[in-house]
Structure of Glycine--tRNA ligase:
Amino acid sequence: MAQQEDHFKKVISHAKEYGYIFGSSEIYDGLSAVYDYGQNGAELKKNIRDYWWKSMVQMHENIVGIDASIFMHPTTWKASGHVDAFNDPLIDNKDSKKRYRADVLIEDYAEKLNQKALKEIAKAKKRFGDKFDEQEFVTTNPRVLRYRKEQETVLQRMARSLEAEDLADVKALIEELGIADPDTGSKNWTDVRQFNLMFGTKLGASAETATDLYLRPETAQGIFVNFLNVQKTGRMKIPFGIAQTGKAFRNEIVARQFIFRMREFEQMEMQFFVRPGDELKWYEHWKETRLKWHLSLGLGEENYRFHDHEKLAHYANAAADIEFDFPFGFKELEGIHSRTDFDLKAHEEFSGKKLQFFDPELNENYVPYVVETSIGLDRMFLAVFSKSLEEEELENGSTRTVLKLPAILAPVKAAILPLVKKDGLPEVAQKIIDDLKFDFNVAYDEKDAVGRRYRRQDAAGTPFCITVDHDTLEDESVTIRDRDTMEQKRVKISELATILHEKIDFKHWAK
Ligand code: GAP
């Protein structure tokens, strides 16, 4: 635990030191849960967004992308259910005056039970070695069975109470489980209350004529209201998808954990419109496809798991999260939701316009069902950044800090380093930059000894360093060093672009 916290602190300070993430308006002491992306952060974020967009839109003939406004007609949010049901159940601790999400307190308690079960399994694995039969152990060991049963009971009761809006029972559950304020240990709780997460704002010149608006809390509704526009103008046939990336806003009361939970964040969402009755087949398809996308980045299969929802949102008939092992444990990274025809039907009802598809094969009109994939770009950034940051022990006993970002996502693909600042080497380095910069984001670095420059580029996440030395002047060759293996190879300058394309191009990653 302490090790995890330590790593998380390093992630935050490294993100600042290397120009990835700054606190918002820091010179005024910042604004809580709001962050700015620096020169490297903006590049990494853009590269993640591009990787998603290309994988979802460019690679699928039946998916197109749009860019809808943040402001939408206020009735949108009545229809979508956000005005009435986009709430968090909050609870205050009377002693510490701290506010928490009641469901998160209970989920954290349940996760501790899960961790206890995993500990038992790990202990047994160690004790029995090769003879260990995990399947038999988890189905017969009384302790594991007890932890798992209790975890299930707790989560099911919470889901039932929230579904029934029985907030008194949510509080009773917290008290029965003896859940204490994580910061102070106090168990002196207020009642649980619902709190709407949408930010309100006004449109109009004077107070009397102004209209109340909301900042969109999800990008999805911009897709639903454009369903017919896109279907008709793009002559789309079901099944088809509409993708979008963009800002969303939520008045998160308990905004913690750096860029994991922010008040202003970016989503990458895709709504896939299908025939009614086909939705669960497509739901499974998208669960699998999205997990594959994550695995393509090579951060390690063990860092992902599915979590099927016990409590379904008001619009869903199936839902799962892809959880990632963040520095504070496994948490939601992406949601895959089977949203039924809830949204389109609601918009039909509130707008009085038909939002239907004429299916020539069935010779009938229907409101399509929707399977949605929804991922937070900032959360994906945190997943990639935190898993890539390593303190590595080297063979000579020294350590190096290295940010092993997947090369396709790295802000700077290669740093070009003249060995010395004289003898014509900087000019050759500059010439290499001028050739490569049309295809790759490359940087020039001439300050300090070359070893220090390598370390600096390792820590900044640059996958390749290209060093120009005196031999270069004779043989037109340079040394290319790989950030992760630290291997160095002598190659011709004329081969550099091909080498980088092979390591970085989209087609080598998204297979
Ligand atoms: N359209 C469905 C939807 O918005 P969600 O589960 O509320 O579903 C989808 O959000 C994703 O957006 C989450 O999996 C998460 O990655 C990201 N997300 C949600 N709230 C966030 C916040 N406050 N800060 C950063 N990312 C957030």
